[in-house]
Amino acid sequence: MKVVYLDHAATTPVRAEVIEAMLPYFRDKFGNASSVYGFGREARKALDDARQKTADILNAGFNEIVFTGGGSEANNLAIKGAAWEYRHKGGHIITSGIEHHAVLHPMQQLEKEGYEVTYLPVDDQGLISVEEFANAVREDTILVSFMHANNEIGVIEPIAQIGAITKERGILFHTDAVQAAGMLDIDVKKLNVDMLSLSAHKFYGPKGVGALYVRKGVRLVPLIHGGSHESRRRAGTENVAGIVGLAKALELADAEREAVVPKIQRLRDRLIDGILQIPNTRLNGSREQRLPNNINVSIEFIEGESLLLNLDLMGIAASSGSACTSGSLDPSHVLMALGLTHEVAHGSLRLTLGRDNTDAEIDYVLEILPPIVQRLREMSPLYSS
Ligand SMILES: *Cc1c(COP(=O)(O)O)cnc(C)c1O
Questions:
Q1: pTM score > 0.90 for this model?
Q2: Which atom of ligand 1 is nearest to the CA of 149?
């Protein structure tokens, strides 16, 4: 059976070019980048090249890149590292209610430690209000963290405008750009951010490796203490192959972005328009301020989980919200923040496209989905009444 993979926000396959670039660092070039002999110098050179490439794409400096064990770690390092370092300046932090759990849960930990966190609401389109943000800033605000693009509903937040305010007020600004990388411009200067998180497996690189941009002059208390790796910001022998893979994947994504994005966006629009033909459906999140690869719809009178199982039987891999919350019966915190009821939030479907999806696959989904929805609705007591 053919498989149509429509869950690229959860993870992406590793591209062949990326695997090729990584392989030598598992085989003959296995040295420890801290060793002085040839093997070590080879690994060091690979790390340096990867760091420079990553920095160039972010419009950052070589020493402003810290490699981590993924996007979650990058977010934790930015948030806890900055909050701990700048505790003497104040204890107030601002974020939004629709962040990834890798931002929300560190925030909750900081609250236990005595910090005060403001969770800004979003409007019914999923957008943060710049004005509401400006009003939430206080004398003791030390850190702000807003995601560049949301992983569930694909909404793109006004990062550059918020950054203009934090810059003027001298407040540190972190953005989780894990979903934005490969789809949007992630130039840290244009975005006015002090810290920015990336994760390789969301842009066709390997899992378990990420990066945090940290603007020169910003200090962080490390999460992992040990050797002096990553300029004392993240101890541990470097994951050379993984880091090489991250840089290669980011380089390819950046080089191909202008060609790939319009193609993906056209498929997205076909899917959105096609699904909205089904009665009692709605698009979640702004249609305009939206990632080119994200579709998130609520389909009334059905259960998202049953829909996913039925799609899976037909070879379609999709998600009913955040991959991290599937398996739990709580409705998505992001969909609830948009003002959806529990029932409507439970009947949501997220499809996220990638560079290899085709028009034929979109045709297939649009052929398979309406009868499945019809069948599920006919079994639902809510629908008949
Ligand atoms: C996937 C994701 C993360 C976590 O990244 P990992 O590398 O899987 O730890 C963080 N934030 C967002 C928005 C994500 O989509």
A1: yes
A2: 13
